[in-house]
Structure formats: C-alpha cells, structure tokens
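User: Please predict the structure of the protein below. I'd like the answer in structure-token form so I can feed it into my own downstream comparison script.

Assistant: Understood. Taking the following sequence of 224 residues as input:
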Amino acid sequence: RFEELLAFVPYMHRFLSKKRIRHRIFVLNQVDHFRFNRASLINVGFLESGNDTDYIAMHDVDLLPLNEQLDYSFPEAGPFHVASPELHPLYHYKTYVGGILLLTKQHYEMCNGMSNRFWGWGREDDEFYRRIKGAGLQVRRPSGITTGYETFQHLHDPAWRKRDQKRIAAQKQEQFKVDRDGGLNNVRYRIESRTDLSVAGAPCTVLNILLDCDTSETPWCTFG
C-alpha cells in the first residue's frame, strides 16, 4: 500500500494540524508470511503507541476525510465512528464501524481490543461492533455533515489491490462468531523494526510487525 501511504501521511498531518489536534501516525506493516490480519495489527499499534497517547484512531490508509467539519477530537463520550454508514462511499449498513473509528484507550481496553482470529480480509470490524456493545458502550457518529457520500476520498482500486477474501476450512462458520476470550490480552507478535520517517515533511512511525499464529487454533492463517 506504498502509494496510498505517500498520499495518506502528508494529507492527514495537514488535516489534523489545521484542526490543532496533536497526533502521531503509526503505520502498521505486516511482514510475516501469514495472511493479512488487520485486527491484530491494530492491537499491536495500540500496545506500541506509548503512554503519551490518550486515544486512538483506527484509520484505513485508503480513506481520506474531505470535509473539515469532521470531528477527530478526544472521544470522551464513547467510540466515535467518523466514517459513518451515511457518509462512507461504499459501506452503508447500520452496524458498520470500519474505516475510521476513534476510541479512548480506556474504552479500547474495555473491549479487550479486537479479535485476533480474523485472517484474510473482512468481518473483524463487525465482530468489534459486538464487542463495543458487550462492553456497554454506545457508538456515536457525526451530525450536521451535508456532504453525503462525497465526505471521503476512497483510494482503493480493486483491480490493482486484490483483497484476500478466501474462506478456508472452518473459517466460514467462524467469521460470524464472537470471540469471547482473545484480543488485546493474547495477540502474539514481534516488532522487526521501528522507523521514524518523514513523508513530504510529515512525520510518521513505521512498525514492521511479525505476527504469530497458532495453526491449531486458526488453521486459516495460512493458505497451505
């Protein structure tokens, strides 16, 4: 996703600086040989973000906010879904919480983070919605935004970026279950490298992450 990254980092740095929101951009880059696991990467980002951060933005690299009225401030009242179904160019179902979601660190811990069982693309944010509800939290969304589906620029080109949507072995049944045991408490990983970069003058930290998989628990983490 290098091309998206070159656009995302300077754009978000300018956008947040203009709104006077102090921020650090962490790029969570999976470098092992397992299938992509967005949820585990976000868990790692949370754990590695340091004590000087008090909330996180789970932010897709291919989604840029175009409307400066969007609120990225501290989500004290509960998880704040910036890319709400009324505004996201692709996903419009009412329980959708993907794309861009802000949470305090306390609220993320109350959910035990995200499930580590979702290898391949999709479904992990639907499971996280159920975790949010289970923790007694209410998802809030933007109000008064009049730009509709033009609120964001979606950089994803499906012809260029093929998504790994295969469902292997028991994964088909598994993807609709709630993971009551795993999450932040049992994500297994190693940081291969941590690099501070500047992209067109905008600072970010790239974490090259080696995830680990228990193939007896989730055999669908590999294609083989």
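That's the full token string. The longest helix spans residues 2-18.
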